Amino acid sequence: MELGAVLNTREDLLSSSKNDDGFVQQSLLIDEVMPLLLETKVVDSEDINHSYYLSNDDKIKINGYTVNSTGERLQIFIVDDSYLSESNDEFYVSLRNVYDEQFNKAIRFVSYAIQNKLENVQESEPIKPLVANLGSEDGLTQFDVIEFFLITLSATVSFRGEDTQLRTIHYKDEIKSFSHKVVGKKAKSKELLFIRRVVDLNYLANIYASQGRAEPLKVVFKDVIGKNIEVIKAADEDDFESYLCVLDAPILADLYKRYSSQLLEKNVRSFLQFKGVNQGIKKTIKDEPEKFIAFNNGLTITATEAKTSYYKKSLYLESLDDFQIVNGGQTTASIYFSRKEGLDISNVKVVAKINVAKTSKSKDLDDLISKISEFSNSQSRVSKVDLRSRSPKLVQLKSLSESVLPPSGKKWFFERAKGDFNTQVRKSTNGQKLKNEFPPKKRFTKELLAKYYCAWGDAPHLVKKGGEKVFRMFIEDIEPEQGDGIDINREFYEQLIAKIILFRTMEEVYGQGKNAIGQLRSAVVPYAISAIYVWSNSTNDGTLLLEKIWKLECLSNGLIEYLKELLFLMNELIKKYSLSEDYGEYSKKQELWMAIKRSSELNNFMDSASSKVALDL
């Protein structure tokens, strides 16, 4: 990575993080960065609970948080506001203590919240539900890992030698012990794993350069489990080598605790809870742990490089580069959550086959890993959607975006590959002209495409979850395993653009910051759109509304006023029918949507005369 790429990334992020008044906003910067973190699998979703909190007296600050899809990992985000000025030329960082100071602000927040030392946080503040959860017995039980992300528009460098060199600052994981006191009960202790990640310009520029993959996951076993793994070399061919081993279950549980869904990057499925096969895994762990190795098919692991060594004539595996579990991810997660529930996994053993691909070509590597995953998977079948890295339907959609001319005469830009637009800008002889032709509001990525498409449906809770769940829902809808799926034609494209305009306009109407309707925009907007879809579907399936939006390429003033009323109502309904004070997290549950959809308040509103006029019902 060169300094030029870092400078370009800084310029792009500063430009895209400005509000209507031209000022860089920390919340907008986070929204720009989250999809990049999703690409690299360090987060499960681009959705975040924006909850800015600053206390100069306590030296505390956080910008937002999210909880991973399986609930055991709390992820805290903090923006370093020292490097947000366009006129600031001093954005190079060479000393670790510059980052230490920022991380400590977020770490203090977590520590104070667990110890109930943040009594001054008002009930109305967005951070209050997290403060209450961390300070409760349930919260301390729920979380095993606290992960801190420092988002900074600084470049981490070394000034040694004649030239400035980019470098990476890594932080060792730490285990922190906390004791939570409950009146009338014995104090409860809990060890939490603290992980710190520097998300600097080096990291972000690398994601753009590699179109989504910042760096492969390297596992050094002594660092995670305290020892190397004894293996047998089973094959040594020109393009791959294989090792066999037996892993103690605590090893797998520790690996999952540290890396979570990163372990499953090329096998995109996350833990499916204790149902079906996973329920059987849990039952075996509980009733017949010593027979687990006989009943379970074991793991298939892939890597691109293995470091081994001999000790007393035995072969040991020290590390794996690009470590991925392509078969047995559900087994690994089930073992972890069984231990979390209190089951004894000390007598459980799992057979593992480790295939190390020697090829350095990305396409050959992807093909090899896809075949390994497809042919070895039998416990919880991998669908073609799981294995597909690109969809022909997306290629068709890209072609339509380049050929279909909207009524205004201004095309939209579909960024099918990460960083595609910025690459074209730099290749162009007039990059500024291209930026003017396709401003941010006229561009969309495949991740945003999935969100906009699926919001026009009956599952806003899944849209709120975001990430691969909503992307899979989109892909499986347009290109199912059985049948031809949806025809990606001009009509589909026109309706898609109308859905994008509707979604983005509703986000603008809801607002952000002090003038916003509330603090629940990422939930209220898809919930409100789903309400429109459900009631439209009973009459004209919404095509009349979408056609009108396409022709105007905007929403009429009358429709905007109506939608504002709907957004106000939905904001209150989410708070009223949520069974948790953390409304953002609870809005990911289907139970909330079902309660709101059945509510008399929403039914009366959608059946009103104003709804019929505004939506042509």
Q: What attributes characterize this protein structure?
A:
single chain; 617 residues; alpha/beta; 8-stranded mixed sheet
Biggest sheet statistics: 8 strands, mixed
Provide the gyration radius in Å: 25 Å
Let me know the average pLDDT: 87
Q: How many individual helices? A: 27
| Form type | globular
The secondary-structure class comes to alpha/beta
Task: Give the strand content.
Answer: 15-25%
The oligomeric state of the chains shown is: single chain
Helix content: 40-55%
Low-pLDDT residue spans:
378-389
Please report the distance between the alpha carbons of the first and last residues: 55 Å
* Beta strand count: 19
Overview of the molecule:
The protein is of the alpha/beta class. It is built from 27 helices and 19 strands. Strands 10, 11, 12, 13, 14, 15, 16 and 17 form an eight-stranded mixed sheet that branches. A six-stranded mixed sheet has the order 1-2-3-5-9-8. β11 (229-236) and β12 form a beta hairpin. α9 crosses α11 (329-340) and α21 (521-537) crosses α23. The longest helix is centred in the last third of the chain and has 21 residues, at 490-510. The protein is globular, with a radius of gyration of 25 Å. The N and C termini lie far apart (55 Å).
